[in-house]
From TrEMBL, chain A:
It comes from Alloscardovia macacae. SMART domains: AAA. This is ABC transporter ATP-binding protein. Belongs to the ABC transporter superfamily. Ycf16 family. PANTHER family: ABC TRANSPORTER I FAMILY MEMBER 6, CHLOROPLASTIC.
Automatic annotation (TrEMBL), chain B:
GO terms for biological process: iron-sulfur cluster assembly. This is ABC transporter permease. NCBIfam families: sufD. It comes from Alloscardovia macacae. Belongs to the iron-sulfur cluster assembly SufBD family. PANTHER family: PROTEIN ABCI7, CHLOROPLASTIC. Transmembrane segments: none annotated. Pfam families: SUFBD_core. Residues 145-367 form the SUF system FeS cluster assembly SufBD core domain.
Amino acid sequence: MSVLEIKDLYASVETNEGRKQILKGVNLTINSNETHAIMGPNGSGKSTLAYTLAGHPKYEVDSGQVFLDGVDILTMTPDERAQAGLFLAMQYPVEVPGVPMTNFLRTAKTAIDGEAPAVRQWTKDLTAAMKNLRMDPKFATRSVNEGFSGGEKKRAEVLQLELLKPKFAVLDETDSGLDVDALRIVSEGVNRAKANTGLGIMMVTHYTRILKYIKPDIVHVFADGHIVETAGPELADYLEEHGYDKYMPEGSTESAQA
Amino acid sequence: MAERKEISIPVADPTNPYAIPAAMPSSADKNPRSFSVEDFALPSRKLDDWRFTPVERLEEFASVFTPAGQVQVSVSAIDGSDVPSGVSCVSIPKSQAPAGTVSKPNDRVSAVEWNSGANAVHVHLAEDTSVPVLVRVHSESFELDSLHLVITTAANVHADIVVEHDGDARLAEGVEISTGDFSEVSTTFIHEWSDTSKHVGNHRIHVGKGATLRHSVVTLGGQTVRIRMDQDFGGEQGDLTMLGIYFAEPGEHIEHRTMVVHNQPECKSRVIYKGALSGQGAHSTWVGNALIEPTAPGTDSYELNRNLILVPGAIADSEPNLEIENGNIVGAGHASSVGRFDDEELFYLMSRGVPEKEAQKLVVAGFFNELIEEIGIPAISEHLMNTVNARLER
């Protein structure tokens, strides 16, 4: 049983117009086996929260703490956070030319586990995980994310999630750019990871449609850099019907339906 | 009213718009070709060909010298076994063909090399070789030395030859390569000199009619290494690939200059050079000249140079020059870049648990991977990758 605790987190990003504070006092606790949906209008800071947790150099923490099982991860480098059990599935996975997927996966697995996986077991696991995600075996020999379609990139993210077995996964707009079939396959992968490892999930999404496949236990509305409302899954239904109007400045509207 | 002088403008043949040679002479290549040292000016930063070069470090190569004769040249199969059949290696006087038959020296240092020392090493590939031929150039002395190497192949031959340089040296090297018609040949030059060594090289290359040549240069060590490569085609449908890999560390100047001349119809050339640079005082230069002459319709040429700055403070000069004197061509492209590690790539790898150093290694391996594979000599691929990795460990 693990706990991810975000305590009064403030973070900024350097922009052309100077330093801009995006996260303004985020408080959130996620336990193993829980799925939290973080929903909110565009520009509310949802993705910033995801990247700040993973340690992206662009975002600077102003104050606050993030504890993974009592240890503050904000002082750690991104690789140390991953080794501690945090995983970020990115909205736009980065292409790394010339680095074969297999090398990368094996290097990552070795770094996370602290030892190289046994060759036979690893090959078996990799093949099975790829098959589950309906991925072409040829894909393993291609360069990391290079030339992948949007759907392939998201599958590759979930493949890593299943192989690296983190304690907590942050899914940043994992549903974006997926057709219905791909959304189902990707969601099944996330659900499998949760069933197998007791993964705690923080699912960042603008739209409600992924919630049909990955059922949240708790739904949070995120606006202006912090959580403004927390409730059960019924909150998502409300958002689907009414959008984010209630949480936005006067005069603007935004739908939560894809 | 003053009498008007008629200006004569060449008139195009309407049935062949490409028939008229360009009215302008080539500007890319005005330098003399000569065996005589006096025909060339002393290297100076003021000269276009030398403006990126720390000429003061190469002063000793600017006037004729008596070579120390310490450089050892040995020939074998790449696995160390005896020279494969069909390969001959003999010493010949420079006055004897094929020495001196592939173009002529094209700058001061190459003319000096030609006039310093009387003999050349001639390697001839008369038959297909099942394993690559290895020419090992080894030196353990910083005494000024010269080496003239002539590589020729028969027509229709399929062969690979690797020329490896290592040790301590101050070497002026001239290389002449002439491939037979319809041959398929690869020549790979590896420079792994000690970090106080100096090397000036001049490759003069002639690609036979319908022949394919893959010419690769890997420069992983040496305080000052400057290699100029000039090439032309002997007939139509020649295919030239020039690949380069280099790694410059603080205090090192690594320079490659390629001069591809399309003088025959329907030939293809690809020049791809990639380098990594690490830290203050590391300096690389790539100058890629491509000249498409009026006699070369159907030319397909492309050149590319990429530089990856690993540690700030390094300087990479990258200059593609393209001169097209024929409108009837398939393509003539170039690309050049100098960049730092991509922060997003590193973050992505690190967010998967890969430590920064390891992530950098992956990115650099990825940067060179393709090129090392394309050099196409499995026997040296692993060695090259390991050497690059060892550099990253420093």
